[in-house]
Amino acid sequence: MSNAKRATRIGIVTAGGDCPGINAAIRGVGKTAILEYGMEVVGISSGFLGLINQEHTILDENQLSGILTVGGTILGTSRENPFKKSTSLLSVDKPKLIRKHYKEMGLDALVCIGGNGTMRTAAHLSEEGLNVIGIPKTIDNDVWGTDQTFGFDSALWIATEAIDRLHTTANSHKRIMVIEVMGHHAGWLALYSGIAGGGDVILLPEVEFDIDIVAKCLKRRAIHKKPYSIVVVAEGIPFKKGDSAGRYIADAIKTKTGMETRETILGYIQRGGSPSPMDRVLATRFGASAVELIAQQKFGQMVNLEGNKISSIPLSDVGGKLRLVPMDLPLIHKTRKMGVCFGDEGN
Ligand code: F6P
User: Fold this and answer.
1) Same domain membership, residue 250 and residue 145
2) Hey, what's the torsion of the CAs at 231, 233, 237, 239, to 10 degrees?
3) Which of 170, 288, 316, 338 fits a disulfide with 177 by CB distance 3.0 to 4.6 angstroms?
4) How far from each other are the two terminal CA atoms of the chain, in whole angstroms?
5) CATH number of 291's domain
6) 210 a catalytic residue
7) Do 180 and 102 belong together in one domain?
8) 271 lines ligand 1 (CB under 6 A)
9) Domain housing 253
10) How far apart are CA 231 and CA 190, in angstroms?
11) Which candidate, 147, 179, 158, places its Cα nearest to that of 311?
12) CATH number for the domain including 174?
């Protein structure tokens, strides 16, 4: 056996809901690792399932070429959470399997690209002794500890374009148009697309709305001869579940105002397709920085954006927290004064 030290070997796993920019991050990690540090890169398939089932492949420079602009993830993803307690008697100890396979695959470090759930898993794996680095991604922009995740800007473009298109048809028919955008817990996408698209009412998961206040805002607009209104609704607004948020709000508006109302549910279109230039750049910066942390042996960290600076914070600080829209956000305060209705007492 030769005495030559083998190259540092790193694994990349992409987990949770996909978003535009993941491939740009994989490329950022892979190219920096191979070209700058002479590392070997292993791509793990289908999120943490790939670590449990040992499904992986070596990523060389060729596989990393041509993926910068491609949406989704070339590695595949899943919502597998290896730390979720199972009640089945036949259940296997998944964290133990992951530790075993990490060793068998000869990994020196693992880069976990994902949202809140993935960062929580990454934090657990780090506590269990694996050398882990997290890279935050999600269209929801709700990962605690970073000013922005990649995926958000691309989804914002799509949602804003959809709202822009609703304006013309709403105006032609003099209707109320309700559009539901993604965001179970955090309303960043609804807030930003609502403001960028000139929404008249914006409903966020963080705000307990009152449908009578929404109706009052819409009637007031009609009295002021506004021929139509746009209502932007986050999917996670607080209401009795069982229906979609958009349909629920559209029906409630019809009942309360008698105005002709239609709903649009944007759905997975927001998560698909090519990343925006800003997301490509952010994902590239995150990917390169993740490898720099590995080279410095600074593990148990999540790369983050603070202002316009890339830095990192301990994964243990991130796991299990959410970055929600604060109601004292200056953007909310300022747009309220411009007539935007958030469905609460502030209006
Ligand atoms: O990735 C975040 C997110 O897009 C949420 O906004 C959305 O509710 C959720 O994922 C749905 O994902 P899936 O149906 O893939 O579990």
Assistant:
1) no
2) 60
3) 170
4) 74
5) 3.40.50.450
6) no
7) no
8) yes
9) 155-271+327-337
10) 10
11) 147
12) 3.40.50.460
Whole-angstrom distance, CA of residue 177 vs CA of residue 192:
17
Q: Is it the case that residue 311 has pLDDT exceeding 90?
A: yes
Which tokens hold the place of 98?
Answer: 């992951």
Q: Is the pLDDT of residue 1 over 70?
A: no
pLDDT for 240 equals 81
Q: Are 136 and 25 in contact (CB under 8 A)?
A: no
Ligand 1 atom 12: residue of nearest CA: 17
Confidence of residue 165 (pLDDT cuts 50, 70, 90): very high
- Evaluate: CB of 22 within 6 angstroms of ligand 1: no
pLDDT digits (tens, 9 = 90+) for 221-231: 999 999 999 99
CA–centroid distance, 183 to ligand 1, in Å, is 8
Name the pairing type of β-strands 40-44 and 56-59.
Answer: antiparallel
Is 333 found in the same domain as 203? yes
Ligand 1 pocket check for 18: Cβ under 6 Å: no
CB 130 within 8 Å of CB 44: no
CA atoms of 13 and 33, how far apart (whole Å): 15
Q: What is the pTM of this model?
A: 0.96
- Considering the domain architecture, whether residues 76 and 209 belong to the same structural domain is answered as no
Average pLDDT over residues 75-82: 96
Nearest Cα residue to 28 out of 316, 310, 307:
310
Residues 280, 146 share a domain: yes
Give the Cα separation of 323 and 317 in Å (integer).
Answer: 12
- Ligand 1: residue of 14, 119, 182 to mutate (most ligand atoms within 8 A of CB) is 182
Evaluate whether residue 3 is within a structural domain: no
Among the listed residues 18, 93, 108, 140, the single catalytic one is: 140
What is the domain count for the chain? 2
